[in-house]
Design brief:
Length: 163
């Protein structure tokens, strides 16, 4: 009988040493397969598997400031839209500034259109629409001479109209 026990033990050890490979790894109870290896994780009976905590995802509304359609429309309708925005924006100095800037750009666009029979004026108007799009999303685009002129004369213009 003792020989049978020894032979059974030897056969059991031989069987465990020849465990089938799982994609290049031997199935071994002392080592767990992890997610990084491409295999699923082995769970011991009686263990409770818990899901990873879910992080709060930021929504688009929280990441970006809201677009201001009135600023875009002021630049789209150049000097007329700028004038309407300037007169309607009572307490919003940013909207007043953009309204005055649209008026200045619109006057220059109209003069360029008259002098070049509409060719350069149309191209400049497309650039003004781009400026309006950027302004609506909170980005200030600098037009080399005209933005400086707007910043220097904004308070003077505002004081004359508010009297």
């Amino acid at each position: 009988m003792p020989g049978d026990l020894a032979s059974k033990k030897a056969r059991a050890e031989k069987a465990t040493s020849r465990k089938p490979p799982i994609r290049g790894k031997l199935l071994d109870e002392s080592r767990k397969l992890t997610h990084g290896t491409g295999e699923s994780e082995m769970v011991v009976v009686g263990e409770i598997a818990r899901a990873a905590p879910v992080e709060k995802k930021l929504t688009i509304e929280e990441d970006k400031p809201k677009a201001r359609l009135e600023l875009f429309l002021a630049y789209f309708f150049v000097w007329l839209g700028g004038l309407v925005l300037y007169l309607l924006a009572k307490d919003d100095t940013e909207a007043e500034w953009h309204g005055f800037h649209a008026i200045v750009l619109g006057v220059v666009c109209t003069l360029l259109g008259i002098l070049t029979f509409g060719i350069v004026g149309t191209l400049f108007w497309l650039y003004i629409v781009y400026i309006g799009w950027q302004a609506a999303h909170g980005v200030k685009v600098e037009v080399p001479v005209l933005t400086k002129f707007t910043e220097e004369n904004f308070e003077k213009f505002r004081a004359t109209l508010r009297k």
